[in-house]
From TrEMBL:
<feature type="compositionally biased region" description="Basic and acidic residues">
    <location>
        <begin position="164"/>
        <end position="173"/>
    </location>
</feature>
<keyword id="KW-1133">Transmembrane helix</keyword>
<feature type="transmembrane region" description="Helical">
    <location>
        <begin position="12"/>
        <end position="33"/>
    </location>
</feature>
<feature type="region of interest" description="Disordered">
    <location>
        <begin position="111"/>
        <end position="184"/>
    </location>
</feature>
<dbReference type="InterPro" id="IPR046314">
    <property type="entry name" value="DUF6466"/>
</dbReference>
<keyword id="KW-0472">Membrane</keyword>
<dbReference type="Pfam" id="PF20070">
    <property type="entry name" value="DUF6466"/>
</dbReference>
<keyword id="KW-0812">Transmembrane</keyword>
<feature type="compositionally biased region" description="Polar residues">
    <location>
        <begin position="111"/>
        <end position="133"/>
    </location>
</feature>
<protein>
    <submittedName>
        <fullName>Cell surface protein</fullName>
    </submittedName>
</protein>
<feature type="compositionally biased region" description="Polar residues">
    <location>
        <begin position="150"/>
        <end position="163"/>
    </location>
</feature>
């Protein structure tokens, strides 16, 4: 008769262990979510700091800074997802940087809008204009030289790739078909 109560105790222990396991898995999930949010926060903070530093420089490209800042805003918004699951310190830090980032994005957008309104050629979508003054960043001669260098670089790269392929075929020694060798 003493053998009957033991299985009940074993069953109770298993139930308690199962509940504890579920609770620990939930805690691990929350910890993982907080680590993910903290990682996104760290990346966004580094980008925000760099953008603030670059925005203070006189020769910065406002449009590029705005694009970077919009990405930073997106990272911070992603880090704030399910903020109820985040630790209060992580939630507060993300919220503070989101406010700073939003203000910087708004300021950069105003500068881009002011530059666009003052220079009509900036609205044409010409990627060779300088966002600061609407002046061409490259002259036609410089643009032609760059295009020529790019064409030469492509040709050189293709010839190097072909030489490597032919060199590999000579060293492989597995070509028994004679003239039917394929370049790949």
């Amino acid at each position: 008769m003493t053998s009957q109560p033991q299985p009940r105790r074993t069953r109770a222990v298993r139930i308690v262990l199962g509940v504890c396991t579920v609770a620990l898995l939930a805690c691990a999930g929350l910890a993982g979510w907080n680590l993910r949010a903290a990682g996104l926060y760290n990346q966004a903070t580094a980008t925000l700091t760099a953008t603030l530093r670059d925005a203070a420089a006189a020769d910065s490209d406002i449009k590029q800074l705005l694009a970077q800042q919009q990405q930073t805003d997106a990272q911070l918004a992603e880090a704030q997802q399910a903020s109820m699951l985040l630790l209060p310190s992580v939630r507060a830090a993300i919220a503070h940087n989101s406010q700073v980032s939003g203000a910087l994005t708004e300021r950069l957008q105003q500068q881009v809008d002011a530059t666009t309104q003052s220079t009509p050629q900036a609205t044409t979508g010409d990627s060779t204009t300088n966002s600061q003054g609407g002046e061409p960043a490259l002259t036609d001669e410089q643009r032609e030289q760059i295009e020529q260098m790019l064409r030469n670089n492509e040709q050189t790269q293709e010839s190097q790739d072909q030489a490597v392929q032919h060199d590999g075929e000579r060293h492989s020694g597995t070509d028994t078909s004679g003239g039917d060798a394929k370049p790949w």
